[in-house]
Specification:
Layout (H helix, E strand, L loop, with lengths): L7 H11 L5 E3 H8 L3 H6 L5 E4 L2 E5 H8 L1
Antiparallel strand pairs: 1-3, 2-3
Helix pairs in contact: 1-4
């Protein structure tokens, strides 16, 4: 699809296979999936974490875009 980064669909599929039926991941899940420390990810201004109710949540689609 026009406008999508090259590996977006492949990344989205991998995330959905790993976390079926989830629209968003916790910070722990995202950090574990990426094999990065949560502090490192939070320092990255492009990482798509959103504070919701005092906890971070990362949209599956946004994580796939971030990985592309």
């Amino acid at each position: 699809m026009a406008g999508e980064k090259r590996d977006y669909r492949a990344n989205l599929e991998i995330i959905r296979e790993t976390f079926p039926d989830k629209a968003a991941l916790s910070m722990r899940e995202a950090a574990g999936f990426l094999r990065r420390d949560r502090r490192t990810l939070l320092k990255d201004r492009t990482f798509p974490a959103q504070m919701i109710g005092g906890k971070y949540a990362i949209s599956v689609a946004a994580l796939a875009r971030y990985m592309s």
